[in-house]
Description:
Number of helices: 6
Amino acid sequence: MNVHRLLSKLRLRRTTPGSKESAPLSFKEMECLLNNAALSLFERYRPQLLDRNPLYLVPAVWGAEGSDELDPLQEEIQRTVTPLIHDLLKRLSPDRTRRDETDGIDYLLKGLFLYKMAYTVQYYLNCRNRAEIAPGAGQSLLERMEPAGRA
């Protein structure tokens, strides 16, 4: 199945209070949830994330493989990411029953989240290296950050 067809079938749902019915969740709203989670994790763990290689985030988002174990920070990131991804997948339209489609969307969401986290860390480091960030002012800079384009 090609990616365009798969994404065109994606209809996320959001539940409204007091209703068993769910309304469509737009891609913009989904992006906002992912952005907020990435920014929140970065703000909470900024010193630790800045001291690590960007590849450190991979097992935190995808999980440990084999005998590898996650350290406490990676576990905390995974405790935030996993429920968010599962929530977005549960909000898919009820007619989505094919396992390969769900696995494909899971793969895309985790990849997108990983890139958002890595981008945020690198953006902050680049700004700091160019002396655009005064000590203690990084949070407001990140809050004003706008995406450079649309996919």
